[in-house]
Amino acid sequence: MKHFYIIANRIKDKDLTVAGEIEQYLKAHGCRCTVETEKPEEKGRSYRYTDPDGIPGDIECLIVLGGDGTLLQAARDVAGRQIPLLGINLGTLGYLAEIDRQNIIPALDRLMGDEYVIERRMMLCGRVYRGEQLLEEDIALNDIVIGGQENFSLIEINNYVNGKFLNTYRADGIIIATPTGSTGYSLSAGGPLISPSAALFLMTPLAPHTLNTRSIVFPPENRITVEIGHGRDGQEQNAAAYFDGDTLVPMGSGDRIEITRAARDTLIVKIHNSSFLEVLRSKMSNR
């Protein structure tokens, strides 16, 4: 790789110190490197944080500085460009952001020497409907969470698979996660860990008022539908769909979200040959 674009979390790299060091190192070794400039707020823009149209066409790798949250944001914004992403963790814990700050230079050397592999990570596409009206459509790399709009208050949710009724939960919410997202919110809710190389849906209820608290795994070609039911005495329920803990789409009783595998995957650059189990063991021992 010779052409790079740096996306930096300006809270964790406030003065772009790390971004500047990386840019300088890459240019000193004959590479081309561009640091994303901060953009003013624009109403009606189609991206969240990174404008994919502002990335030069010949970029071979996006270097994302921050942590897992920053990488999730970048992945959603640039999904249509299909450019591999390398995450550099400037925080304390990261599953997606593989490289720690002290290992940046060796990682850059391996990038320039083409010593890496690229992993494909499936993404989710969620479409929120009110009747037959499409309210919102978005994608997620980790998960789509449906829960109460006010502090995840108890709600009734009806679940369907490929149009057929599955079950009803009265719960704080429900998580539909990818294998990548199995190490996130779903794990905290008691869900299993799944290798990110797998392709499947993971459904995990949030504090359900039932003895059935197990997660359920579905093939990636399925369509998962979560419908907001009515509260006690037929009361209207206020809920929301949260995409990767970032974008919020309000929902109410009778609204539904249909979740399928997204048309495109996220491409993650892997520098080390560590297996998922080795990474997992290392990260969990540092908690």
UniProtKB/TrEMBL annotation:
EC number of the protein: 2.7.1.23
Protein name: NAD kinase
Gene Ontology MF terms: ATP binding; metal ion binding; NAD binding; NAD+ kinase activity
GO cellular component, one term: cytoplasm
GO biological processes: NAD+ metabolic process; NADP+ biosynthetic process
Cellular location(s): Cytoplasm
Organism name: Candidatus Scatomonas pullistercoris
Similarity comment: family membership: Belongs to the NAD kinase family.
Location (main, coarse): cytoplasm
Catalysis performed (reactions): NAD(+) + ATP = ADP + NADP(+) + H(+)
Keywords, ordered alphabetically: ATP-binding, Cytoplasm, Kinase, NAD, NADP, Nucleotide-binding, Transferase
Record function comment: Involved in the regulation of the intracellular balance of NAD and NADP, and is a key enzyme in the biosynthesis of NADP. Catalyzes specifically the phosphorylation on 2'-hydroxyl of the adenosine moiety of NAD to yield NADP.
Binding of NAD(+), residues: 68-69, 142-143, 170, 172, 183-188, 207
Active-site residue numbers: 68
GN (gene name): nadK
SUPFAM superfamilies named in the record: NAD kinase/diacylglycerol kinase-like
